[in-house]
Amino acid sequence: MMFLALRHLLSKKRQTILVLLGISLGTTMFLVIAGVQMGMQEYILERMLANAPHVKIEPRESLVRNEPLAERFYGEGPSVRWVVPPSGKRGELHLEHPQGWFDLLSSSPEVMGYSPVLVVNGLALRGTVRAPIALQGFLPERISRLTDFESSMVEGKLADIAGGGNQLVVGRSFLEKIGAVRGDSIRISLGSGEPLPFRIAGVYHSGMRGFDDVILYGALQDVQMANRTPGRIGAVHVYLFDPESAAARANQWSVLSRDRVESWDQSSMQFLQIFSVQNFTRLVITFAILIVASFGIYNVLSIMVNQKKREIAILRSIGYPPKDVLELFLLQGVMLGVGGAMVGLVVGHLLNLWIGTIEMGFDSPMGNRLLISYSPMNYVTGFLLAAVSSVAASFLPARAASKYTPLDIIRSEG
What we know:
Low-confidence stretches: none
Number of helices: 15
Helix content: 40-55%
Order of helices and strands: HHEEHEHEEHEEHEEHEHEHEHHHHHH
Shape: elongated
Number of domains: 2
Structural class: alpha+beta
Largest sheet: 6 strands, mixed, barrel
Strand order of the largest sheet: 4-5-10-7-9-8
């Protein structure tokens, strides 16, 4: 049966080659688009999970609204008309009972570790240069153990600020903006009191300029003292052994307190939806190409069935049942699909290797070249898409061929 199927395909070499090219093109495009898109997605998720907290516990802010105030002070009866509507927020921008969270997290087996954090907005001053900043205080020894932040350090180490003494780790682009180098001192103003001197002990580079320009890191105790709020905790960053379970843990812990508990995927939901749109677009493009190739398979096999009627009649006459005739033409579709898919996978892999060497001009800790994903799932998906579409396209012509009888063929030829 394999010999007959191959002979039928080779009898129409030009048509067979064109169909193979169509299938291989669809598979190649899928592999290239998937490699580029998923390479960037994997890099973003890897950096996000390596440095960002898996669960963030923050104080919950509530807006001051007209209706609750009117009902509280005037009851449900009278209608109140505000000359100046109340506005603002209720609630402190710090955790009221952080120790309760510390006890819970310390006893949770799924928690790899946690770090209390305090973020204060202010200004960095050096000479006549002023730059807005967000000064983040944390425990350096915990962050270096729980995250991959150390890999983004280009000068110094996180351990340099662990001993306190008003030491900072700043972004490389921040240094360029204020005209300083490692070892220099800058003044930090947090809105109350005189600006305090801080020494630049380390430099990091995340590849996101908007992030590197603004975020400055210091020891938690230094930031608390500079803000004149000793002991205050603004948030707790939690790191899990299984980041995929972050949403479930956040939902479980959110009922224990009024504080806001949010997982990394919940806070990045809109950003992650972009990945879903990209994946859907990739599949649509691939299906469009493969549908065109499938019509090619359908046309080739339909023409072949009409041209091979005499051979079908001979096969039926010598005892081949309809099932074998159906298998014969289905086998041709499978051979076209598998052959085109294998060619497409090889060409797509070679193209991805070449694309991975192209310099794009952007600056990131991973270099300035496109990041390509070589996930085995991409190759399996591309192969299955080509194979399944080929089998589906060859089914109708094969079914039509299997229904022919020698008598029908003789009558149609006559």
